[in-house]
């Protein structure tokens, strides 16, 4: 094990002083866990080999796009600039230019570095003054002649195949207007790789929670120039503002699930200490609210206090009728407690509660008498999904909520939280964060392909665990949610409810995927939290469907499962919900 550097020890001490021993130990455990210790070896195993790079150099494309790297500079250390330049000159796709706008008082050093290579692709402009990060970036933008604009920092590094994979995307999907890749961090001395960020495919809701795209980001020049450059009012979050604007206009945003960019971590940088630039996160919040205004979305974002994380409150339009369909678990005390929690803990007014019991379930008359103003629906069939389908046919409502009767909500505004998001354009389904009685996470969205079929995200993690790249605490698009679900009546009728043949919560996962085929989005919100009456099983994660039903799902969604869940990552394991590296020999 390599000993920490003096810089890392200093950062650790500062973190300890600021956050206390409990948070420090938790952070230490994260940073010395499997992702940190295995990442350098994993990366070396997965980066392009010399033979692969040679093959890439021989590849010809139908179009030869020019990529302009937009790089503002200010007193950049010469070695860092050289490393950036050399990582560009090593690209297997060679049609690029570096546009460097230098706001340093004395530009002689950086100009000499650029001239020393005698490479016409290296273009340098010394500015009359330092215009700030946005102003300097705009100066670099003015220099660009390329078909695509690429945002990069003056001290970071690219893998030699970064542009090659962008060209592959453009060859396969010509309407792509924006591209981003996975990334990792590198120490100041360039000696150690750490903190890999394996990203989701394009995810509007996650982007509205934080700038998960970050590096490396390329945009078609026609789109990038339409948005009007970088705004000084968002300094510190100018890239986030720019990315939001570009994604608003892009026909297609593509993701390359390869680590092709290394972000240098140094004191005072966001990469080195995410909490060091609180002003940047306030600027990011303003940029996000400006995005909502441009898009005509009635919403208000707030900075959560966690570095780069935002929460959005969406205004509920009108007064839609909501029907809550509560599935009876067979335990009367749970039923009474859940009904009481819903009655006393719901601030939204226009809603009604139905209790669904299967044909073989019986509820005592004493309990029935206590269920005032609750509609008791006794189904003709025994299965969960058949019960849902039968009740949904007769219950009315603009929105339906299916709740596993073992859960009850934490907050009285839980319906407003669901409605605010489910009423947004293209959103058809919303689910929340489900917790076991012992405060372990049961579900934070569902990933397709986990365990060979589907699995709950972050299951078994502690209640306060942020999850990989804070996914557990971030609003985001997911492929499915299952045990507590709000859906539009319109979507339910479009799909005809749950498909016959599915008898468990796997039927709801199938429902979410079919909705996705019609263009409806499924969203996970961490701000709806429901807690179960039951603790997590001692044996850990359990299968929630029969083997035969799992095989049916695998057959129905064979192509989708082979391609992989777009909101997960092919670099992460499907053997469990703990976000470990995926082994090359993994076979689920």
From TrEMBL:
The similarity comment for this entry is: Belongs to the glycosyltransferase 2 family.
PANTHER family under this entry? GALACTOFURANOSYLTRANSFERASE GLFT2, RHAMNOSYLTRANSFERASE WBBL
Q: Is Cell membrane found in the keyword set?
A: no
Residues spanning the membrane = none
Any single GO molecular-function term of the entry would be: glycosyltransferase activity
Q: Does the keyword Glycosyltransferase apply?
A: yes
Which ranges carry the Glycosyltransferase 2-like domain?
Answer: 68-181
| Recorded metabolic or biological pathway in which this protein acts | Cell wall biogenesis; cell wall polysaccharide biosynthesis
Specify one Pfam family.
Glycos_transf_2
What name does UniProt use for this protein? Glycosyltransferase
């Amino acid at each position: 094990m390599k000993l920490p550097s003096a810089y890392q020890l200093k950062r650790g001490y500062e973190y300890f002083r600021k956050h206390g021993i409990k948070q420090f130990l938790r952070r230490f455990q994260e940073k010395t866990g499997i992702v940190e210790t295995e990442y350098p070896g994993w990366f070396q195993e997965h980066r392009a080999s010399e033979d692969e790079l040679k093959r890439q150099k021989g590849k010809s494309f139908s179009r030869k796009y020019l990529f302009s790297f937009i790089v503002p500079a200010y007193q950049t250390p010469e070695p860092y600039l050289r490393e950036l330049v050399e990582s560009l000159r090593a690209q297997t796709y060679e049609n690029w230019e570096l546009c460097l706008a230098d706001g340093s008082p004395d530009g002689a050093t950086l100009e000499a570095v650029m001239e020393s290579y005698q490479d016409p692709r290296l273009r340098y402009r010394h500015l009359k003054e330092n215009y700030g990060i946005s102003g300097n970036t705009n100066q670099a933008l003015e220099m660009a002649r390329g078909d695509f604009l690429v945002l990069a920092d003056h001290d970071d590094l690219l893998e030699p195949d970064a542009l090659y994979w962008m060209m592959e995307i453009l060859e396969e999907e010509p309407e792509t207007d924006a591209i981003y890749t996975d990334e990792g961090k590198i120490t100041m001395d360039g000696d150690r790789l750490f903190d890999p960020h394996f990203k989701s495919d394009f995810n509007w809701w996650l982007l509205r929670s934080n700038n998960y795209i970050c590096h490396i980001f390329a945009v078609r020049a026609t789109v990038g120039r339409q948005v009007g450059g970088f705004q000084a009012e968002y300094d510190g979050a100018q890239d986030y503002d720019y990315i939001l604007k570009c994604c608003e206009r892009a026909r297609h945003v593509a993701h390359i699930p390869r680590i092709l960019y290394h972000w240098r971590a140094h004191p005072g940088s966001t990469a080195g200490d995410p909490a060091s630039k609180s002003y940047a996160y306030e600027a990011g919040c303003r940029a996000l609210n400006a995005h909502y205004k441009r898009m005509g979305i009635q919403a208000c974002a707030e900075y959560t206090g966690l570095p780069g994380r935002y929460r959005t409150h969406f205004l509920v339009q009108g007064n839609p009728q909501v029907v809550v369909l509560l599935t009876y678990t067979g335990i009367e005390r749970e039923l009474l407690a859940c009904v009481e929690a819903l009655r006393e803990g719901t601030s939204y007014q226009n809603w009604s509660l139905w209790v669904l019991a299967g044909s073989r379930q019986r509820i005592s008359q004493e309990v029935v008498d206590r269920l005032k103003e609750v509609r008791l629906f006794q189904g003709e069939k025994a299965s969960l999904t058949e019960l849902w389908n039968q009740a949904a046919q007769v219950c009315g409502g603009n929105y339906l909520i299916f709740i596993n009767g073992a859960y009850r909500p934490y907050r009285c505004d839980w319906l407003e939280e669901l409605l605010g998001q489910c009423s947004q354009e293209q959103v058809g389904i919303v689910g929340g964060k489900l917790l076991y009685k012992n405060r372990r996470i049961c579900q934070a969205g569902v990933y397709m392909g986990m365990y060979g079929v589907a699995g709950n995200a972050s299951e078994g993690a502690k209640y306060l665990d942020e999850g990989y790249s804070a996914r557990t605490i971030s609003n985001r698009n997911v492929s499915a949610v299952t045990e507590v679900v709000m859906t539009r009546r319109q979507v339910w009728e479009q799909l005809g409810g749950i498909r016959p043949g599915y008898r468990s919560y796997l039927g709801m996962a199938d429902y979410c995927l079919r909705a996705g085929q019609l263009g409806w989005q499924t969203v996970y919100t961490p701000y709806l939290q429901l807690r179960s009456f039951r603790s997590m099983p001692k044996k850990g994660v359990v299968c929630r469907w029969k083997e035969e039903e799992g095989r049916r799902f695998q057959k129905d969604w064979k192509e989708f499962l082979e391609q992989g869940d777009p909101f997960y990552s092919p670099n992460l394991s499907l053997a469990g919900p703990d976000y470990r590296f995926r082994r090359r020999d993994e076979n689920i």
